[in-house]
Design a protein that fits this description.
The complex is a heterodimer of chains A (531) and B (326).
Chain A lengths: L1 E9 L14 E8 L4 E5 L6 H7 L3 H4 L4 E8 L2 E2 L12 E4 L3 H4 L5 H11 L4 H14 L15 H13 L5 E5 L7 H17 L3 E5 L12 E5 L5 E4 L13 H8 L9 H11 L14 E12 L2 E12 L2 E6 L6 H9 L6 E6 L2 E2 L5 H7 E4 L12 H12 L5 H10 L13 H13 L5 E5 L7 H13 L6 E5 L3 H7 L2 E6 L2 E6 L1 H4 L9 H6 L13
Chain B lengths: L1 H5 L11 H17 L3 H18 L9 H21 L9 E3 L3 E7 L2 E6 L2 E2 H27 L2 H7 L5 H31 L5 H28 L10 H27 L4 H23 L14 H18 L6
Antiparallel strand pairs in B: 1-4, 2-3
The chains are: A alpha/beta (531), B mainly alpha (326).
Chain lengths: 531, 326
């Protein structure tokens, strides 16, 4: 189906020279079979997106750069063709479907590709019926796209990519912005497409722990130009992106490595490993008090009357489905977000009454779209500006950034960093300020496992009796690793406030993967497992 | 006109061809640009607003009019302000505003005069000018809020498809820029205020980058789904079709420009415009026949479209006939 022969891709600078000595993709040779479900993974910034884009001409057409070698799809070499010449063979779905939508309603969006390819109207009709049944969106056809949930939008985007009978589907992190339920919906549909319809699926993902059991093979983009592909268990020897389930198997020396929860459960029962209770930190004095806080937009109540306080020495996680009010709550606590009612008291008064300088002295926040904070022309300029502003020793931000993202050439433009690297940069800029209140909104999106471990370490290092950290996230494994307390929002209401060992424990809706594997109460993160 | 406003079942935005709204909007704008009567201008503006009020649907697009109303208000204000600042009148006779005048010596015997006494007539003229611009803005705003430019794409003939796509993305850019501006300003306050140039670049650069990123993302998604395919047409055919379409548009633009800027030779101007329109229609027909795009659900012409179109044409004829001129 897809055959790559000596495929090489390099980015070019504006003067025509290559950005780096080693190409982004270097002499890639591999074959992907019809109906194969392939997980594409690799460390942050290794070039997973570039690899996918090279397969339908978006790279170099939309990214710049040079590509050489052979790219055979169904036997025809299409290397160097424009993306629209791939469009009848390859469907492409990106991270944020709402930015890629051309239509207003679901049906407009689905038929777009078929219209562009000039298919006859009756054929489009049939195809729409078939594909919408397959993706379970038949009821949604007349709805405006803006009214759909994230998971529904992604399924529409997939339908739109396959409406003309394309048998290859490329997906660039389609679930990174989705909650558990949305991500599960999309994954289910992808499995069905590959097994029933023999669609070849290439799925680039960061949250791979729940995906690896579903795929046929794993393709790793290593970041040094090499790309390897093989059966799942053989591909995880790079510690930077080993998912928890594999990490557990490696830690306990299990052979063969279990890749799904059922196998791992059996192995756990058989070997009965020992584990410690989760390390707890005593909450210190109260740092922040949220009282009767309400946020209303138009006639939508985003946050309903909520009261809680955050203590020093404490890392709290704020969880809940998409649209449950996490982001609205974060901004309302920060002080500049809308508030209908209520107060957020700190040692220096209500955050809403502070001017922006007072707020900066008191709290620091990383918003969901971290890249909005970056505006200078080079990475080094951003790092220096951050040191100057935070009044810390020159080089402090750079050191923190390196601990999260590894060594990166500081002369490059921040926009050329990958999404995960940009997030790491903004995390470094905001954490180096050592503010008393730290609010992070989805701080692990696009980060590989080693970056998540590094972030957890930094957050633990920030613990102080007068400092509190609040993390809004969908990332259960990260919460299991770092949090002392879990708050769960449901439809704007605070419904759960408890210890992670309870909220993420066996049988709970947010159970961590290790809790599911071991079925042991009180065990949620791999650090607890003893050798 | 009352038929348009009162009967919302006859013409609601959902059940009307988007092209009709744009033609109606353009007709209103043309009528506004041809009249000097302040009360008629106010009527046109009010008509546009009322039409939106009664015909819009619940799509988020329907609410973009707030932006146009603000823009119109700013334009009226600026027009008046400029008239007061760059006032060339000196006589205090008939003056309604007696402002002291400021003279700047520019050397070589030239002086720049600012402010000074201003007559009621001058103010009235400036106000009419401001309201004319405002009425044109509101007319376009009406079309834009009632017919999403994306929907308009479906109604454009195949030959104009690429141009229409570019235009619809460009029109989309304004609301997108505003949204990303407010988001980036809020995000910037999290980083800390920079001083001098950095304070400006700190806002402008992320907004521009974000807008360009989004547009590029949309373009990539369209391209990946087949936009821009030649199909079975040869390069020469594609080029020919584009040239024909382009020349058609040029003729229409030239014709209307003559008509608006030299209203003394109306017969000649009208002939030019009609000739241009005819040529454009022929070229579009010719090249559309070769286009390879299917329209899955074409927007049909309905009764409401006919009513609107007749009303619009009547308005333009009245304006040209000089009935609306005073």
């Amino acid at each position: 189906m897809i055959q790559l022969k000596d495929l090489t891709f390099s980015y070019l600078k504006s003067d025509g020279s290559k950005v780096s000595e080693t190409p982004q993709l270097n002499n890639v040779n591999l074959t992907i079979n019809a109906g194969e479900f392939v997980l594409v993974c690799g460390p942050t910034g290794s070039g997973k997106s570039t690899f996918l884009k090279a397969l339908n001409g978006l790279a170099p057409s939309f990214t710049g750069g040079v590509i050489t070698g052979e790219l055979r799809i169904n036997g025809t070499d299409l290397l160097g063709s424009e993306p629209h010449e791939f469009s009848h063979l390859v469907g492409y779905v990106n991270q944020q479907p709402e930015n890629a939508f051309v239509g207003d309603t679901v049906i407009d969006e689905i038929v777009y590709c078929a219209e562009q390819l000039g298919l006859p109207v009756n054929q489009i009709q049939e195809s729409v019926i078939q594909i919408s049944e397959l993706l379970e969106i038949t009821e949604l056809l007349e709805r405006p796209l803006a009214t759909l949930s994230g998971g529904q939008q992604q399924r529409v985007a997939i339908a739109s990519a396959l409406v003309a009978g394309q048998k290859i589907l490329l997906l660039d992190e389609p679930t990174s912005a989705l909650d558990l339920e949305g991500a599960a919906e999309v994954l289910k549909v992808l499995q069905k497409l590959s097994s029933q319809e023999k669609v070849t699926v290439l799925l680039a993902e960061h949250r791979i722990s729940r995906v690896i059991a579903a795929v046929d093979s794993v393709l790793v983009v290593h970041g040094d130009g090499s790309v390897t592909k093989g059966p799942t268990a053989t591909q995880f020897n790079d510690p930077r992106f080993v998912p928890p389930i594999i990490e557990l198997g490696i830690k306990l020396g299990w052979k063969p490595l279990p890749i799904n929860t059922i196998d791992a459960s059996a192995k756990w029962l058989e070997t009965k490993p020992k584990f410690s209770t989760k390390k707890t930190f005593e909450p210190a004095e109260e740092v922040l008090k949220v009282e009767n806080l309400e946020v209303t937009f138009g006639n939508v109540q985003a946050v309903k009357s909520t009261t809680f306080s955050l203590a020093g020495n404490q890392i709290s996680a704020l969880m809940g489905e998409n649209g449950s009010g996490k982001t609205s709550l974060c901004w309302a606590i920060q002080g500049s977000g809308d508030r209908t009612k209520g107060s957020v008291l700190t040692a220096k008064g209500d955050t809403a009454d502070m001017n922006s300088d007072e707020r900066l002295g008191m709290l620091t926040m990383v918003p969901q779209r971290a890249a909005d904070l970056l505006f200078l022309a080079t990475l080094s300029a951003e790092l220096e500006e951050s040191d100057r502003f935070a009044e810390v020793e020159p080089g402090s931000t750079a050191k923190l950034f390196q601990s999260l993202a590894g060594r990166i050439d500081t002369s490059i433009h921040p926009r050329d960093l990958s999404a995960g690297q940009q997030l790491s940069l903004v995390l470094a800029i905001q954490l180096v300020k050592q503010a008393k209140i730290v609010i992070l909104d989805e701080p692990t999106r696009g980060l590989d496992y080693s970056a998540k471990h590094a972030l957890a370490k930094q957050l633990n290092g920030l613990r102080a009796p007068n400092r509190t950290v609040l993390i809004a996230t969908h990332d259960i494994e990260f919460v299991a690793m770092v949090a002392d307390r879990v708050l769960v929002l449901d439809d704007g209401q605070l419904v759960i406030d408890g210890y992670p060992t309870e909220v993420l424990g066996v049988g709970m809706p947010f159970a961590s993967q290790l809790a599911e594997i071991s079925q042991e109460p009180g065990l949620i993160s791999i650090e607890q497992v003893l050798l | 006109m009352s038929a348009i406003n009162s009967n919302r079942h006859l013409v609601s935005a959902i059940k009307t061809n988007p092209l009709t709204w744009w033609l109606a909007g353009i007709s209103l704008a043309v009528a506004a640009s041809l009249t000097n009567n302040l009360s008629i201008l106010i009527c046109i503006g009010a008509l546009a607003l009322l039409t939106i009020r009664f015909c819009r649907d619940d799509s988020p697009w329907g609410y973009s009019i707030a932006f146009y109303i603000r823009l119109a208000a700013v334009v009226i204000f600026l027009r008046l302000l400029f008239r007061i600042i760059f006032n060339l009148g000196t006589s205090t006779k008939d003056a309604v505003l007696l402002l002291p005048s400021l003279d700047f010596d520019l050397g070589f015997g030239n002086t720049l005069k600012l402010f000074g006494p201003i007559s009621g007539l001058a103010l009235n003229l400036a106000l009419t000018d401001g309201f004319r611009l405002a009425a044109i803005i509101l007319s376009v705003g009406m079309a834009n809020s009632l017919a999403n430019p994306r929907k308009l794409l479906k109604a454009t003939p195949g030959a104009l498809y690429e141009i229409a796509t570019a235009l619809s993305i460009a029109i989309n850019l304004a609301p997108q820029l505003i949204a990303s501006l407010s988001r980036v300003r809020r995000a910037r306050s999290l980083r800390g205020q920079s001083k001098g140039m950095k304070a400006i670049t700190g806002i402008v650069i992320p907004v521009l980058e974000d807008t360009i990123d989004q547009s590029m993302g949309l373009a990539a998604s369209m391209s990946a789904r087949g936009f821009g395919r030649k199909g079975n047409r040869s390069n020469a055919q594609v080029l020919g079709a584009r040239l024909l379409a382009f020349s058609g548009i040029c003729l229409i633009v030239t014709g209307s420009a003559f008509l608006l800027f030299s209203p003394d030779q109306q017969v000649l101007d009208l002939t030019l415009l009609i000739l241009g329109l005819a040529l454009a229609v022929i070229s579009i027909r010719l090249s559309s026949a070769r286009a390879t795009i299917t329209r899955y659900r074409k927007e049909p012409w309905r009764k409401g479209d006919a009513v609107l179109l007749i009303a619009s044409i009547a308005l333009v004829v009245l304006a040209f006939g000089g009935v609306l001129r005073t």
